[in-house]
Amino acid sequence: MKTLKTILLSLFIAASMGAVSASAETDAGRVTYKPAEAIDMVVAKIQAAIEGISKGASNEEAAALIKPAIDLSKEINANDKVDNARSKANRKLKSALTHAKDSSLQEAEQELRDAKKDFEALKSLI
Fold first, then answer.
1. Residue 89: φ, ψ to 5°
2. What is the total count of domains within the chain?
3. What pTM was estimated for this model as a whole?
């Protein structure tokens, strides 16, 4: 009898966990992107920031161009390898944002170029 109770309890817990995880896929109002699509979107935002800086954007404008790339990079979600590499590339974006706020636009542009290469390399990890 004790074994039967243990088995039934285990089955109940497994079924409950399955039901909860199936219902927790995504929120109804939230847009989700495939990893490759999210990477392309981040690279496009980074390229827009690079072009803005090269055209003579002010510090605030440059920071405003970099911020969406940082926010969008959080949407890249595939596996642990991709997440670790994304985290390293994201640090370069944050560094570029700091440089832009500190009036070091040349350094910000170089950080953006490095981050762009890193984000493009993420596709090979998917």
1. -65, -35
2. 1
3. 0.74
